[in-house]
Amino acid sequence: MKIMSGMMKLAAISALFAAVMASHSVAQDEVLDTNYAPELNIYKGEAADACDPALLQIRTEVHNVEAGGVLVVELYSDDADNFLSKEARLRRIRVPATDGPMAICITLETVGTYALASYHDRDADRKLDRKWNMLPKEPFALSLNRRLKLRKPRLEEASFEVGEDGIDLELNLRTGRG
């Protein structure tokens, strides 16, 4: 009887595991945005907003982009202690990279102080590749296009004010300290 009881428990656990795995794969399929190639790992909610000068938006033109991989633009709050960390990140935009300048718009809920960071994720691995000295290996830019120093960038070096009309910015991707 104990053997049969153990086999029934094992069967129940196996069935539960199969159900969880099936629901996970369905959820993963739902997360992938069908507008983009699945190999780029772009998820729903990561697409840029449609540019509209009538809306409160950050309208960004990103320069020095080459085709292949993913262009990433991240919006940060004015939290200086957590700049460039998940805690201060308000939004991440990921779009397939194409040659030439790319227009990326982010609709905002309120005016205020913000900062942008952008990079060309050439290998689409969802992370910024770095050199031995921790500087970006992939093309990178911060709002205001300041050159990187041999330290973590500070919020005040990249922050800007967004008024009621929104703002138009240009980001120039560079490699290294550029």
Radius of gyration: 21 Å
Approximate helicity band: 10-25%
Mean pLDDT score:
81
Counted up, domains total: 2
How would you describe what is shown here?
- The chain has 178 residues and is of the alpha+beta class.
- The protein folds into 2 domains: 2-31; 39-172, no CATH class.
- Helices cover 17% and strands 29% of the residues.
- The protein contains 1 helix and 8 strands, in the order H-E-E-E-E-E-E-E-E.
- It has one helix at 2-31, and strands at residues 57-63, 70-76, 89-96, 102-107, 112-121, 140-142, 159-162, 167-172.
- Strands 2, 3, 5, 6 and 7 form a 5-stranded antiparallel β-sheet that branches. A 3-stranded mixed β-sheet has the order 4-1-8, with no helix packed on it.
- The longest helix is centred in the first third of the chain and has 30 residues, at 2-31.
- The protein is globular.
Topology:
Elements: H1 2-31, E1 57-63, E2 70-76, E3 89-96, E4 102-107, E5 112-121, E6 140-142, E7 159-162, E8 167-172
Parallel strand pairs: 1-8
Antiparallel strand pairs: 1-4, 2-3, 2-5, 5-6, 5-7
What's this, in brief?
It contains one helix and eight strands, in the order αββββββββ. By secondary structure, it is α+β, with helices and mostly antiparallel strands. Strands 2, 3, 5, 6 and 7 form a five-stranded antiparallel beta sheet that branches. A three-stranded mixed beta sheet has the order 4-1-8, with no helix packed on it.
Task: Give the key terms.
alpha+beta, three-stranded mixed sheet, 8 strands, 178 residues, five-stranded antiparallel sheet, 2 domains, single chain
